[in-house]
């Protein structure tokens, strides 16, 4: 059964179509790569899915429920969690407190939330920084903080918006491994926006390509790299 | 970098801190047995009242990051409800104050539903505007509030449990104990907030509303919860003030000045900390008293630094008492420039540095 169905979603800002008539499905446990040149509408699509914008047209169906018009906090409670392209640590709170805020979405007890948070901090291997202020962490660790924090909300579907952006190769590798580990546990479906083609081809089961707000192609990573339209969109027609 | 967090410490209190706390509280309870001067008791009462007001604001402003500059509205609502009920219906203040709290909570929910659609400076401006509407309403609704004339009560009914008279309010002492208990209660409430889900959610909202929203935090519900707690205790402060001073009018319990002063208590002490408003009150209450009674001008003249007949001497004597707003302004600039985390945050940083850690 499809865990997420995007049906003919369009989003207009005035006359500009940031997304137009995008449709695809995700089955449980998979990793979907979402790629496209700058301004293709990837983050807008994320915002439409997670409740930050209501889609102008079309439907988002998650786990059999229609998500249009739901607020981000409800979306999170229903089991869909997202990270941010521009990281948003809660700067004056510690790493542990940040992740606990995520966990408190599922419990009212601080003690249980603390246990849940520590578990996720172990998953991203940051136990040694547990009492550090989030605002003082370097970018790679902030990205991992965001991952731990959304994992603590116990999502069924995780949407990662450029978690590898701005990272060095070693840090990227670590995050790729983390994403694959999450997949191998089999409980969480993931959608990943990424610019690093090598990374996206390595982790994705399927890839959707957006260009100028429209879905240009969908297929296995192998199909996508050989698709002439995708090559044109990225490199221009003179190629 | 050493993990050090002046604003959000999760470490439990040490045995030394607990002991010091108990000794201080015991000393404060014993205080009126040894000090009989009404003036000193009066100053202590103002200090407790200031702590109560500052700490109430701290919950919405310091922890939740919503800088309401309209808290006079709740203070005034508490004061007016209590005194109107006392003077017209002869309802004793310890019942009236609960109705004041109820009225303030309703007002907070109305204000919250309007103002929390706005963020940052727009929220601040809206909170000022709404408080001014409340003040002008009180000024013009003369049939209920007596307008600018104000409400004066001569006698506060004796506080009885059954037939036993606990106190008849003939001295400052009962007020002292009430104010002390209120100050301790609000400190306790803040501690509870900080050590519960509320504290985490409030601070998450302060740090980043969008991130908080995406982590399952319903912004409307939690911001309004913070405002309701804050408004209820500010209202209580207003009720206490009304029976303590026995006279209120819109320019004493509802002005913008008061809203600003409430904010300053926390900002100067250190926002988002349990003891920030206490420290802020320790600075502001003596300062405002010194300005009011002109001791600063007299001190400067008596010490010979400034000649009494010189231009400066005459200016200080005549105008310093009215210049408290100017002095507050200077104080805020100094605090923001040199102690952006307030007096308390500044000293914690200094102690941490001395211990060799980096803040």
Folded structure, characterized:
The complex is a heterodimer of chains A (239) and B (359). Chain A has nine helices and ten strands. By secondary structure, chain A is of the alpha/beta class. Chain A has two domains: 1-79 and 156-239, Rossmann fold (3-Layer(aba) Sandwich), CATH 3.40.50; 89-154. Chain A has a six-stranded mixed beta sheet with strand order 6-7-8-3-9-10, with helices on both faces. In chain A, strands 2-1-4-5 form a four-stranded antiparallel beta sheet, covered by helices on one side. In chain A, a hairpin with a 2-residue loop joins strand 4 (57-62) and strand 5 (65-66). With 359 residues, chain B is mainly α. Chain B has a single domain, classed as ABC transporter involved in vitamin B12 uptake, BtuC (Orthogonal Bundle). Chain B is built from 17 helices and four strands. In chain B, strand 2 and strand 3 form a beta hairpin. In chain B, helix 2 crosses helix 12 (256-269) and helix 12 (256-269) runs parallel beside helix 16. The A-B interface holds A 50, 52, 71-74, 76-77, 81-82, 84, 88-94, 96-97, 100-102, 104-105, 108, 110, 113, 129, 131-133, 136, 149-150, 153 and B 1, 3-5, 7-8, 10, 195-197, 200-201, 203-204, 206-208, 210-219, 272.
Give a topology summary.
The complex is a heterodimer of chains A (239) and B (359).
Chain A: E1 2-13, E2 16-27, E3 31-35, H1 42-50, E4 57-62, E5 65-66, H2 72-77, E6 80-82, H3 95-103, H4 110-123, H5 139-151, E7 157-161, H6 169-185, E8 189-193, H7 197-203, E9 206-211, E10 214-219, H8 221-225, H9 228-235
Parallel strand pairs in A: 3-8, 3-9, 6-7, 7-8
Antiparallel strand pairs in A: 1-2, 1-4, 4-5, 9-10
Helix pairs in contact in A: 3-4, 3-5, 4-5
Chain B: H1 15-34, H2 38-63, H3 72-89, H4 93-115, H5 121-140, H6 142-145, E1 151-152, E2 159-161, E3 164-167, H7 173-194, H8 197-207, H9 209-214, H10 219-245, E4 247-248, H11 250-253, H12 256-269, H13 276-292, H14 295-302, H15 311-319, H16 324-338, H17 342-354
Antiparallel strand pairs in B: 1-4, 2-3
């Amino acid at each position: 059964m499809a865990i997420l169905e995007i049906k003919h979603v369009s989003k207009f800002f005035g006359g500009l179509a940031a997304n137009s008539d995008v449709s695809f499905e995700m089955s449980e446990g998979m990793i979907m790569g979402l790629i496209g040149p700058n301004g293709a509408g990837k983050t807008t699509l994320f915002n439409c899915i997670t409740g930050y914008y209501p889609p102008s047209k079309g439907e988002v169906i998650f786990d059999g429920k229609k998500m249009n018009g739901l607020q981000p906090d409800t979306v999170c409670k229903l089991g869909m969690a997202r990270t941010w392209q521009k990281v948003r640590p809660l700067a004056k709170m510690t790493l542990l407190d940040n992740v606990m805020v995520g966990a408190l979405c599922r419990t009212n007890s601080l003690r249980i939330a603390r246990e849940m948070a520590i578990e996720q901090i172990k998953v991203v291997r940051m136990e040694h920084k547990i009492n550090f202020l989030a605002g003082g962490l370097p970018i790679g660790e902030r990205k991992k903080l965001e991952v731990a924090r959304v994992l603590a909300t116990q999502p069924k579907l995780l949407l990662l918006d450029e978690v590898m952006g701005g990272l060095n190769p070693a840090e990227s590798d670590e995050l790729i491994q983390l994403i694959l580990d999450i997949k191998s546990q089999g409980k969480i479906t993931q959608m990943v926006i990424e610019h690093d083609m090598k990374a996206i081809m390595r982790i994705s089961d399927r890839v959707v390509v957006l260009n100028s707000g429209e879905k240009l192609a969908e297929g296995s990573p192998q199909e996508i790299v050989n698709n002439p339209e995708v090559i044109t969109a990225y490199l221009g027609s003179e190629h | 970098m050493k993990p050090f967090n002046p604003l959000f410490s999760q470490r439990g209190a040490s045995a030394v801190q607990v002991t010091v706390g108990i000794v201080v509280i015991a000393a404060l309870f014993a205080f009126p047995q040894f000090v009989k001067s009404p003036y000193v008791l009066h100053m202590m009462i103002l200090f407790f009242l200031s702590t109560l007001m500052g700490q109430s604001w701290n919950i919405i402003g310091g922890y939740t990051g919503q800088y309401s500059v309209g808290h006079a509205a709740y203070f005034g609502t508490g004061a007016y409800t209590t005194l109107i009920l006392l003077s017209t219906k002869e309802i004793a203040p310890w019942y009236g104050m609960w109705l004041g709290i109820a009225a303030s909570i309703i007002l907070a929910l109305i204000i919250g539903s309007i103002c929390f659609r706005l963020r940052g400076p727009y929220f601040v401006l809206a909170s000022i505007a709404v408080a001014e509407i409340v003040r002008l309403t009180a000024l013009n609704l003369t049939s209920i509030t007596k307008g600018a004339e104000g409400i004066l009560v001569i006698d506060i009914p004796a506080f009885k449990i059954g037939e036993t008279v606990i106190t008849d309010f003939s001295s400052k002492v009962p007020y002292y104990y009430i104010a002390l208990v209120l100050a301790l209660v609000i400190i306790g409430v803040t501690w509870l907030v900080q050590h519960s889900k509320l504290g985490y959610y409030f601070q998450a909202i302060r740090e980043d509303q969008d991130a908080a929203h995406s982590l399952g935090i319903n912004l409307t519900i939690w911001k309004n919860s913070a405002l309701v707690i804050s408004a209820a205790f500010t209202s209580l402060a207003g009720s206490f003030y009304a029976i303590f001073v026995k006279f209120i009018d819109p320019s004493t319990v509802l002005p913008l000045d008061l809203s600003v002063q409430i904010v300053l208590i926390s900002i100067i002490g250190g926002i988002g900390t349990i003891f920030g408003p206490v420290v802020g009150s320790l600075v502001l209450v003596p300062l405002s008293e010194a300005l009011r009674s002109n001791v600063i001008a007299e001190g400067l003249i008596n010490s010979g630094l400034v000649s009494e007949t010189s231009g400066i001497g005459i200016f200080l004597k005549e105008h310093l008492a009215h210049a408290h707003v100017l002095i507050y302004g200077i104080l805020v600039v100094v605090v923001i420039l040199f102690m952006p985390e307030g007096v308390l945050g500044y000293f914690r940083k200094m102690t941490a540095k001395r211990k060799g850690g980096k803040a």
